[in-house]
Amino acid sequence: MTSTEPPASEYLQWLTIEKGRSLATIEAYRRDIGAFWRWLDHEGLELASVSDSDYERYVTSLRSGARADSSVARAMSSIHGWFGFMVDEGQLDVDPTARIRGARRGRTLPKPLGEEQMLALLDSLNGERPVDLRDRALLELLYGTGARVSEVVGIGLEDLDFDEELILVTGKGSKQRLVPMGATLRRALVQLLLPGGRGEFPGAKKSTKLFLNSRGGPLTRQGVDLIINKRALIAGIDRSKISAHVFRHSCATHMLAHGADIRVVQELLGHASISTTQLYTAVSVTSLKREYQSAHPRAHE
């Protein structure tokens, strides 16, 4: 192992900010993940190479010890959630915990924001201050491309191609993909880069990153979370229902609902496996059934 501490700080912060987990729960998860990390070190395993059989051996070691069943179940939940988060963020390609019995309580379907709510949120970003222009471009990019927040904060000025209307996004392992720059997103980015926009941030000329914070440094994942929370509050949207991931979920679900091919959405989101993208199809089907039940005259006896 190259570090004595597991790379779990972003996951634990996400649980705290976006899921509202208690301090006691966060500390329990930290201990569970830390114990697993030490086991990997003892076994000479790297995180990216952990297989389902490796994970199964670890679970077996927990069950053969003196730990209560509830404690083992929580540890499995902690580790499973951590791996799922890293896969969603593009930090890992495979979740080795996915096939182990008891590790999964049923995959929770993404909860996208409704189209009307999403459009209302984006349309509420109508200020002309530099931070307003930045926030508008940021949220339009999150929704318009479905990129992961970790990918968005890494976008540089050189990654924007306004002639071809494309954005180069770099994911885990330096894997790159091109995503389209829709008309609304293009307009927001142009406004951000015009005088009175990005250039007004301190030290903007010294940075190559597209999105900057108020001090002129690169915008971080945590900074994005704060911006989303602030803008949701202003727009009157329940902040517990909105996050950077929700923009990604909403992009995929809304595109599929409007007839996009699932493999096109897979390419847009950078999913290694189409099975991940198919989760959004389930969301679309759920919405379709709900609308059918409420609107079709023959839906009820």
Annotated CATH architecture of the largest domain: Orthogonal Bundle
CATH class designation of the largest domain = Mainly Alpha
For the largest beta-sheet, the strand count, sense and barrel status come to: 3 strands, antiparallel
The third-level CATH topology of the largest domain is hpI Integrase, Chain A
Beta-strand percentage range = under 5%
What is the arithmetic mean of pLDDT? Answer: 85
The DSSP helix count reads: 12
Short key terms for the protein model shown above:
globular, hpI Integrase, Chain A, 53% helix, DNA polymerase, domain 1, 3 strands, mainly alpha, 301 residues
Question: What this model shows, in words?
Answer:
The chain has 301 residues and is mainly alpha-helical. It folds into two domains: 9-88, Tyrosine recombinase, N-terminal domain (DNA polymerase, domain 1, Orthogonal Bundle); 115-291, hpI Integrase, Chain A. Helices cover 53% and strands 4% of the residues. It has twelve helices and three strands. The protein has a three-stranded antiparallel sheet with strand order 1-2-3, with no helix packed on it. α2 (23-43) packs across α4 (69-88). The protein is globular.
